[in-house]
Amino acid sequence: MQDENETPQLTEDEKKLFEELMPEDLAEILDTGVNRRHFLKLITLASGGILAAQSAVAEQVLIRPLSAPLPAELSPTTIENGVTISFKVNGTARKLMVDSRMTLLDTLRERLELTGSKKGCDHGQCGACTVIVDGRRVLSCLTLAAACEGKTVKTIEGIAQGNDSRNAASPTVRLHPVQEAFLKHDGFQCGFCTPGQICSAVALLEEARNGELSYVSETIRKKAAPLQLSTEEIRERMSGNICRCGAYPNIVAAIQEVQSGKPVEQTWHIIG
Ligand code: FES
Ligand code: FES
After folding, report:
1. In percent, how much of the chain has pLDDT > 90?
2. C-alpha dihedral sign at 62, 65, 67, 68
3. Would the CB of 255 count as within 6 Å of ligand 2?
């Protein structure tokens, strides 16, 4: 049995480690062995080193300019569970390898540099990430990129008429009527929800043209196409898009104006 008072002997490797990490404590450690204070200090230094290494990797990923190519170690060939998807985004055919669990939102923002679609909640509750897939509005934070194989995706970057990923600077590009109406009616304040609101509104107008019914449609027996949407209908159909700035009356007025083709007066509520 080891004598309690015997000073533990450190191996050469242990001495080297303490010399590197805790040079000011080395003499004490050699005299008395490792005590609780030394042990805690050693653990703190070791976890600091791990954190620093992780931060260095995170920095590479997060501070990298969007236009810079991915570093080799982050290139798609190293993706675990990688699947290759081919789809059309804003009129341009794209083919890329993604993790099979990657969402459409992350693919658009992080792989295709289309950062117009916003990540608000990442839980399907705010609508900031709304894009149009095969003509239907979807929440891209709840849609897997792999599920878009062979589909057409339209994001806010592709909403303006004549705009696609290839000729964004073309002089023939014209804002979509919904975009113009949002500008006219001040349909945004901070603008964070606006890409999702506009994508949703564009798809909503198509739904109305096709006579698709909603929860508050007045007539459900006789399907009329196109539908004329009341304020209540627009509010209901846009209810998945949350605006924390509260620009709702202006958003509804903008959509009403595009749908009716007639100028819609702004309604101001003066309180007090
Ligand atoms: S980010 Fe997709 S619904 Fe909020
Ligand atoms: S304009 Fe700010 S969240 Fe809608």
Report:
1. 56
2. negative
3. no
